[in-house]
Request: fold
Amino acid sequence: MRFKRPQAVPDADGFVAVVPASAVIPGQLTPAAVQGRPLLLTRYEGKLLAFGRYCPHAAGDLRQGSLVRYKVVCPEHDYSFDMRTGRILWPEDEVYRLPCYEVKEEEGMVKVRVGKRGENN
Ligand code: FES
Reply:
């Protein structure tokens, strides 16, 4: 018999607990998912960051990418994105944008808020 994993319930502000805060380490990418959306978590200069796991160019898995300060570089074609804003950094003439999500740390958990599709950048 298979049991379905219960859906995490958002708090009053719409944040959903995704992983223990101790699992998110500077310089590393921690995979998570909220409401069916795969995402990655990291810390940069003391701030928690949450963004989409798959590259908006051609769905490269950014978990296999590299981190250079605030940049995540896709392993497929080397496009790079600012993890803080989702803005593409290279190539400069492209318009792709990495979705970023509101994130906070509370009660030892990392919590992410995901709005309806299109509400995040
Ligand atoms: S799939 Fe990421 S740069 Fe092409």
The pocket of FE2/S2 (inorganic) cluster is lined by residues 55, 57-58, 60, 74, 76-77, 79 (CB under 6 Å). The two ends are 40 Å apart (CA to CA). The chain has one domain: 15-113.
